[in-house]
Amino acid sequence: MFKNTLKCLVKIDKNVHSRPNSNVAFIGLGQMGTRMVNNLIKHGKQPRVYDVVPSAVSSIKGAIPCSSAEEAVDGANIIITMLPNGQIVKDTVIGQKGILKKIGKNSLLLDSSTTGPQVARELYQAAKESSVRFLDAPVSGGVVGAQAGTLCFMVGGDEGDCKEVEPVLLHMGAKVLFCGDSGAGQITKLCNNLILGVTMIGTAEAMNLGVKLGLDPKLLSDVVNISTGRSWSSDTYNPVPGVMENVPSAKNYDGGFSVELIAKDLGLAGDAALSISAPVPLAAMSHQLFRTMITYGLGKKDFSVIYKFLEGKAVDN
Amino acid sequence: MFKNTLKCLVKIDKNVHSRPNSNVAFIGLGQMGTRMVNNLIKHGKQPRVYDVVPSAVSSIKGAIPCSSAEEAVDGANIIITMLPNGQIVKDTVIGQKGILKKIGKNSLLLDSSTTGPQVARELYQAAKESSVRFLDAPVSGGVVGAQAGTLCFMVGGDEGDCKEVEPVLLHMGAKVLFCGDSGAGQITKLCNNLILGVTMIGTAEAMNLGVKLGLDPKLLSDVVNISTGRSWSSDTYNPVPGVMENVPSAKNYDGGFSVELIAKDLGLAGDAALSISAPVPLAAMSHQLFRTMITYGLGKKDFSVIYKFLEGKAVDN
Amino acid sequence: MFKNTLKCLVKIDKNVHSRPNSNVAFIGLGQMGTRMVNNLIKHGKQPRVYDVVPSAVSSIKGAIPCSSAEEAVDGANIIITMLPNGQIVKDTVIGQKGILKKIGKNSLLLDSSTTGPQVARELYQAAKESSVRFLDAPVSGGVVGAQAGTLCFMVGGDEGDCKEVEPVLLHMGAKVLFCGDSGAGQITKLCNNLILGVTMIGTAEAMNLGVKLGLDPKLLSDVVNISTGRSWSSDTYNPVPGVMENVPSAKNYDGGFSVELIAKDLGLAGDAALSISAPVPLAAMSHQLFRTMITYGLGKKDFSVIYKFLEGKAVDN
Amino acid sequence: MFKNTLKCLVKIDKNVHSRPNSNVAFIGLGQMGTRMVNNLIKHGKQPRVYDVVPSAVSSIKGAIPCSSAEEAVDGANIIITMLPNGQIVKDTVIGQKGILKKIGKNSLLLDSSTTGPQVARELYQAAKESSVRFLDAPVSGGVVGAQAGTLCFMVGGDEGDCKEVEPVLLHMGAKVLFCGDSGAGQITKLCNNLILGVTMIGTAEAMNLGVKLGLDPKLLSDVVNISTGRSWSSDTYNPVPGVMENVPSAKNYDGGFSVELIAKDLGLAGDAALSISAPVPLAAMSHQLFRTMITYGLGKKDFSVIYKFLEGKAVDN
After folding, report:
1. Of D45, D175, D189, D264, which residue is the catalytic one?
2. pTM higher than 0.80, yes or no?
3. Which of C280, C291, C295 is the closest to A288 by Cβ?
């Protein structure tokens, strides 16, 4: 049903300007949201911001601090949410004190949280009934990408709305990919991260095997990277300490994309698969492995720590 | 223990000439061997060839047909074997009628079969005791690479021997990668193919999930290919019919790298992992999935047929 | 938190009488519900019955047919629901036309559907706010147990309520097990069925392995049944045709406990595990295997058909 | 091919006497062998014993100590081996200093080691060529059963030979099960232990899930044990501390059947499955889980420690 081609792929022209008169509200100032807002400010925006944690609101310079979500959306015609999970997004938008009824007609509500397609479609429908336009626009790139303004937005909803909001998104990211109807952004992100989780574990298994059998990990990576085993997990984010610089495996697996987050995404992918009876055996097993690692206190580490877990050295202290 | 750097990486200068006085014997004229021999002949060699199937021997033009392995190695100083599995290699080299005792002192025996490291090291040792030099040199690239002369040789043994035989190998392939001590070629190949098997299944799971949820497979592939889910399995060998041309998924999964062969390699990788207690959970599960597919009559299809298997449409007729 | 002992274990005195003045309503007349209602009638009850399918209602002799759920609960002080899944139970009880507001104060609402603990606790809470008592009481025993009146009820909620409704339940089943606070009946059922699904597949793997290696399946089962591999799956419900009589494997895997239902229960167990970060690797893999079997058209067969699936003969026509 | 019925099932008449003139040799005096030999002595035998560890030989009272395997078999007409693995058995029997050529014609060689069917059949064949009769007779019951004389022997080979040696075996065990042709004892043991490994993990997953969700483990076990989840792993060897007495889970998982041994058996089962293309997905995953536990230093603990591993508390110190 999403027979679109990848139309607005890879925009990096940072000189694109958004409508000068767009008023942006931003709700959710965690690790990601704070950085995204700061990039909006850098590009001349003065967003209305809100978070349940007051200090998160007050610490941002150049924004208009608000003391409630309702206050934040007041007068805004673009509202962006960046929240921990689908339930919180639903509570925030369509809950008892939900912002939807406060949002002006024809405004654009864009959710960058990772929620799965079900929540996205539910919100799209609710928004439509309130004459509000809704886009699901989860991101990849993590905290590093949010900081650098190089996030990739995967967008589902109406293509015209995507085009319209694109200049604003490009203040925070490097790519805006229109993926199809409502929910398509969420599905695309889950599919990508399903592959990511599985491929990283496979790569870690092979690296651990090769190294234990005496191979030099750098040499093995070099060969894999010009062969059929090549992937982002081996050539850009290698899980073995010493093979690459500036990746989590070079920094005690701190920073990066946490085990908890990949586990969350694999869980959402599993739910989505369940809803349509699609078998995902390796994703299910990967989900279990990452969850076992959480049980062992590795939830906050970068997910490439699976290499250490397989090595038997991740859980000593 | 194999702390070498990847020295002889990516040689594509096809003008390199091997020693004019090298006499090559080639044993094993299956799908791979026949094509490799033909490329040797194209480059001016006249190899002595043998196979247990007489018609395989007689059908090659430009080679010296031999009626036994012993006859083939007579007078050869480079002997190449390309056989179905490790047991057959062992029988051929050190069995009761094994060729090792017929090979001249200081000759070079190179095995391009996929056998696992154990067999490679055993043969290296036996060869050494007979003053014969031995290299394990399994290949990637499959029948297509063998035909085109673009195979990649992963070599274990003594580096000087690798350098010496490299010109001959480059008649049959595009790359010669020295990986380390005896067995290192085998280990490298198994590690690469472990990743390959796991990544292909993960990619197929995500593609099936996305398509069943309404995404266009081409668009999903395009996004994945510029994202963290990118891999050879998605950007070069996509398993979904219609996404790419000239790959097995475009041709009813005929040709390519068979389910039987990836299952064999994952089995060897599992054995190697067992020998050193390295956990390989996803590889083990992938192995089981491919073996289940063999049980359902898909053993000869290209391994990307896992997409069809997950879709529930591979096993109807 | 459920530190109770198994107090009302195994009641089989069928002469126990329920309060003569109890008025029972029964909502949900599928395969299970119809048979349960018939057993109530046999024991002298005249339940008020409702189902969304009118013919299901009219075909029951001896009950009071109702044309809506609201009508069914009118005047009843014990209300039993037996519905396909948690969403339908929630819609029926607390949805827009939900029965909860029509149920008399202090009445007892008992849900025998398998819904998972979350739904049970939500309904318990909602019921409490309406001064209605709520028990979760999923059953094991299947269609056969429902027909014979030998179901096992696993009950969560307040123990006094369990005791009170026990005589009514024993008209439909042979055992009433009080498991603890609200949700405990659901959890107990999911835990039991998790083991069941995993053990059945493990048993089928071993039987298929042994038989393919030449063992007689009856002899192998006999040995397993007096050894450490013994389980209900091998000694009472053996998956290999010819080993036992009167089990689904003796009848082309028709009847019994369907692949769809065990897959549903493993899915609910997985959700519950997710909610508390408990790793369930084999359950997850079993879930995937059963779901793959559904993809291949085996969803309605008894779940012991996994034996045939592993054998490679389940999916031919 | 092994269409025998379970003829000699469950012999416990300990007054059965073996041929008074049988001379027994016993090779392999580890944890199992020493205890088995002591039971032979208790029943009036004076076996000729040997082990590669001299102190193991000298510490047995009432046996005839020998300084080599060859010396041990000298004059014996029943030779029993109990060794760590198939390779050692092969070395001992048909290796360069193998005992086979020293064993008298028509004597009976019985191997109680767990080796897999391949080794058993190889030895049967070799023995036959030397006019020696061979039985594979692996045991279940572990160190506890060896101590108490309650082992169960699973025997493959010629049924007459099984009958003949039965009285001697019943000095060391409580059951002698004739399973079929050569190798059938090994296959039977592997099949049983495959189920055992899978079922124990499934049981541990469910128990951990239930307990984390608030159920009392004793109550949950009681329900499972009268339901479809019942198995030896739950009703006889429960993995949760506090549920049963006198099982490893009650004693810090010391003693019992080690993780290393179940991993070994699952590995052999996997090899056997590979040889005939039988899919064993849960066994493969179980194998990986037990091997991961070895990596974390739990190899010597009883295999029911999987409960602690899933709980996330097995690997702290």
Report:
1. D189
2. yes
3. C280
